[in-house]
Specification:
mainly alpha; single chain
């Protein structure tokens, strides 16, 4: 019989304001509500405390997986509008767009080189 000596590190719920660690999430939530009254919104999934309701709602998208902000060019979806806006700058900078893989390119030469990849994928061996 063999035993493996693997070390596991347990991560405890940690306060994002002061760094305190807790054995269970409920204790962290109670701590944030009591000790950090200027951060009244506490996530029930991870214990993250935030000041404003809008930031709290934005944070909740991380846990829900909801992506309400959709790119009108390629259809990619994002949880935050800021991320979509950053993504849209890429489309504005790059004028050549690949419909197959949603990549975009600044030059026609670069785009033509890229299309060879898809042509090779379609060749049946």
């Amino acid at each position: 019989m063999s035993t493996s000596n693997t070390s596991q590190t347990t991560e405890f719920p940690t306060c994002n304001v002061c760094g305190s660690e807790f054995l269970i999430l409920d204790l962290l939530i109670d701590h944030c509500k009591e000790q950090h009254k200027n951060m009244p919104y506490v996530c029930e999934y991870c214990g993250r405390a935030v000041k404003s309701l809008s930031n709290f709602k934005r944070h909740q998208l991380v846990h829900s997986g909801e992506r309400p902000h959709v790119c009108q060019v390629c259809g990619d979806a994002f949880g935050q509008k800021d991320t979509l806006n950053f993504h849209m700058k890429r489309h504005a900078e790059n004028t050549y767009y690949c419909e197959e893989c949603k990549n975009s390119f600044k030059s026609e030469e670069e785009f033509e080189r890229h299309k060879i990849i898809h042509a090779k994928e379609k060749v049946v061996v």
